[in-house]
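To whoever is covering the structure queue this week,

Two jobs came back overnight. Logging them here so there's a record in the thread.

Job A:
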Amino acid sequence: MGFTGLARWVNSPTDGLSIISDNIIKNHSGVFKEKWQLSVKSYRSLLSTPQSAVQIERSMCVLTMRENVFVLVEDPLAPTRADLLAGGAPSSYQPGHYRNTFLTLNPPGALEQLLEYLKACWVPVRQAAPSNAPRNRPQGSGQQLSVEGFIFAIGTDWLVRTGNVILSTGGTKGMLLEVAIQSLVADGTSELVSNLLTAVLSNIRGVTSVAVITSSDAQWEDVLWDREEEEKEKEQPDDPDPSEVIGSV
């Protein structure tokens, strides 16, 4: 089980990527592995319910990295697992979906094709739809945000990803740094990850960074709960008690 930490260098200069890369290689014995590229898009969809004239907004965040597309959909009208448990719903009841739904698609571009095929009413955030555009088609599919940089290895247990945050207009909006430890997590690992992130930035004069965020794989497993896997486990019969088996022989 690993541990990951994130930090953002808000006021990075134009040569910030070179500064960070040199710092990792010279001061932390980092070794270049490969380029780091990912893109982020966000969509929204407005729904009207018969019970209310107020429109409900659903959101969808899409992250593309290499050949995989990770999609997180939030529907305020759908229940959470905690809501069902607190409400005493029967265990056999399964809603069509929960408030947060996580999907993985492949290859890149598959989501846009799916939205086009379903004529889904999802519109990219911060992009106004033309007045003559069909309402049942997603408007625009260009990248809204991207990160471009490098991946370094420190020893055998650490990976450091660093890259420029590039807006859809082409401008740069700071830098993103990610530190991941691949070995088993123990007490104090969060502090180790935070300290490495701080060390990577500490040798730079006048740096302004956003608060460092750390999370373990166990926390991600709880967030990205797999309903289908849980249903399969429920369908499998429980192993019989060994004492019962012996008694029946």
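Job B:
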Amino acid sequence: MITGVFSVRVWTPVGVLASLAYCLHQRRVALAELQGADGQRPVDRSLLKLKMVQVVFRHGARSPLKPLPLEEQGGMFAGQLTKVGMQQMFTLGERLRKNYVEDIPFLSPTFNPQEVFIRSTNIFRNLESTRCLLAGLFQCQKEGPIIIHTDEAHSEVLYPNYQNCWSLRQRARGRRQAASLQPGISEDLKKVKEGIGVDSSDEVDFLILLDNVAAEQEKTGSCRFHGS
């Protein structure tokens, strides 16, 4: 699941022009490299100017979407952004600040709504991740209100949306259950559940187990980012 789309602009609206600007920039850089490699006079890179930056990122570490029956959440709800996840996003914001405020003076050091467009899915862990990233990027300094744009759940396109895509629903229907019934899979799952003390009647499959393992690993910082 994509957490958000963070677009920085100083000359055009967000949209198709953003992709066009990026492609043009990549082409100019490639041409400059090719001309230099052929022995011709290389293009002076100081003449190239950064026009737009788009950052697409996921949320930080979270708690499991479906905790195992034998686990305690410790006061957290399913899928909640953890303290580790908050720090991950704040650190990412600091890295972006170094790249686009300090090393390249592209962004103002203080948040300016005329320069930045922010888009996120309307899920709490994603909104919190976006806020943490912005805090790291602008160090809590702003010149105007920070608006995080979202969409309604039924029309969201930043994650696989089963509500508004009939084809996606048809393709996904029954696949998870069918995978668990593959030869050897159901037997392996039964052994794993017995080994960790999960009742055989509990609806726990390998995807749920993987999600819980990944969340547990992130508590110690051994994983960088979580699943969906």
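Note for Job B: The first helix runs from residue 16 to 37.

Please reply-all if you pick these up so we don't duplicate work.
Q.
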